[in-house]
Every structure is written in C-alpha cells, then in structure tokens.
Amino acid sequence: MNIRLQLFELEDQRWFPHVIRQGMLDFLRFMITKLHAYEAAVPLLQELLTRTNQRHITDLCSGAGGGIETIQQDLSQRMGQTIVVTLTDLYPNLASYQFLKEQTHGTIDFIPEPIDATAVPETITGVRTIFSSFHHFPPTIARQILQDAANKRAAIGVFEGSQKSWLEMLLLWLVFPFIILVVTPFIRPFKLSRIFFTYIIPLIPVGIIWDGTVSLLRIYTPGQLQQMLQTIDAPNYSWQTGRTGNKPGKHVIYLLGYPS
Fold first, then answer.
1. What is the DSSP string of 115-151?
2. How far apart are CA 211 and CA 191, in angstroms?
3. Using an 8 Å Cβ cutoff, are 68 and 36 in contact?
4. Phi, psi of 15 (to 5 degrees)
C-alpha cells in the first residue's frame, strides 16, 4: 500500500464527543499492550537512548498511552536500569495517564498541561517518541515536529505499528468488530460509558473501524518519510527510516533522528 490519503479521523475533530474519543483510545491502548505490538521497536529505542546517553523518554501525542507500559518495562530490563517515561499530549487523557502512573509506581508520569509536538518547551527533556500518532499530521505539520526536534538537538523516534498493507485493512474490517465486542469488558480502568457506547449505542466500534481504516491510508511509508527528511534543515543531525518486525501484528514503520 504505497498510497497516502490525508482523510479525516473522527478523533481529530474538535466536535467529536470526548467520551467516544477516550473509549476508542482506551481500546487502542489495550490492544497495543496485550499484543506487544511495538516489540520490534524496543531495540531501536534502546539504541537511540544509548547513542544519546539518555534514560528518560518524553512521549509526545500519547493518546491513552497505548503500549508504553510494556515498552518501558522491556527497555528497563534490556538496559539494566529503570527507564522513566513522561506522557504528553495536546489533549491529555488524564484518567488513563493517572492509571498508568499508579500501575508503574511512578516510572511512567505525565504532564497534565497541553503540549504541542511542533513546539515542545525547552524545559521538557529526554528522548522524544511518537507511537501510533505521526500519521495524524499532514506533511507540513509532520515536518514541523521533526524540525522542532532537530532545532532543539533532541533525539526523536517515530513508530507506527503497521506494515501498511491491504491484508491489515481486510483484517480490520472482518475481524476487529468481533474483537472489540469481546475485549471491551476487560479494558481498565473500567468505565460504564465505554460499555454503553460499545453495546447499546455502538459509536465506539464504528469510530474504531473508521479511524483504523483512515489511519492505514494516512501512515507514511519509509520512502515518504525519507522524502520528508530531505526538506528538514538539520546540520549535524542523523536520520534513519525503515521497517522492522517479522511477526504477525508486530510490524513497525520507524523514523529515528539524533544529533550526530
């Protein structure tokens, strides 16, 4: 799937009900965590932390914090010391962030104020990461995110949990509706609103399938990311892009950037 269409996702719209958006993001967090979808990205992130002598990750566009708990645990185990993660978002999901903070005894923390990924304050340090969110941004804003990291000499890792294939699209349409119905009662923290808008008025499943379809069409391929990098003014800064992972459901498209 080499095309990229800048269609609209429901969760990006200001008018979209917050309770439905959070229900969709909670499902995404649950699935990414349970499937260890970013398993193949962990060695790349370890390399980025080692290159920059960092042990702190600032996660941008965190959504509901999907998969970050297992990533933090795997990184800490591989590196032999605790890796600290700070979650940030322009629209912070405070309930999910507080849940993750309590689950990890504070090794995953968060900034409650809105943080714009195109203009991260100088006071916020650490290796920047973006998981499952970079595709939301049109090229002009995506370039601003990368340019801001380069300007502030901050390392950045962008990861999309997908191979970007038509098979993934088919599975989304045919299999995911049943998965949503099965796993929703097990998502924590438990919310009655999530149950209501899944089984009584199924706005959350409809939103997940629509946004999942659009997400696949919006994800940048490694070739498209490489073309974007050619427009970034970043002297003494190195970039890598590519695909990694060879297990079903664990393919990752990535972009890494760090000061040379």
1. --TTS--TT--SEEEEES-GGGS-HHHHHHHHHHHHH
2. 21
3. no
4. -80, -10
Q: What are phi and psi of 179, to 5 degrees?
A: -60, -45
Q: What pLDDT does 216 receive?
A: 95
Q: Do you find a cis peptide bond into 248, omega within 30 degrees of 0?
A: no
Between CA 23 and CA 11 the distance in angstroms is 10
155 falls in which pLDDT band (50, 70, 90)?
A: very high
| Cα 129 from Cα 20, distance rounded (Å) | 25
pTM of the model: 0.92
CA dihedral 35, 39, 41, 42 (to 10 degrees): 130
Question: In this structure, what is the dihedral angle of CA atoms 19, 20, 22, 25, given to the nearest 10 degrees?
Answer: 170
Distances (CA, A) of 135 to 54, 62, 184, 221: 26, 13, 25, 10
DSSP state of 198: I
Q: Give the pairing type, strands 252-259 and 156-160.
A: antiparallel
Look up residue 219 and give its DSSP letter: P
Other Cβ atoms within 10 Å of 178 Cβ, number: 10
CB 235 within 8 A of CB 202: no
Q: Which residues of 49-83 are buried (b: 16+ CB within 10 A; e: fewer)?
A: beeeebbebbbbbbbbbbbbbbbbbbbbeeeeeeb
Output the six-digit token pair for 222.
């490694």
pLDDT at 66 > cutoff 80 = no
| Inter-residue contact 252 to 172 (CB < 8 Å) | no
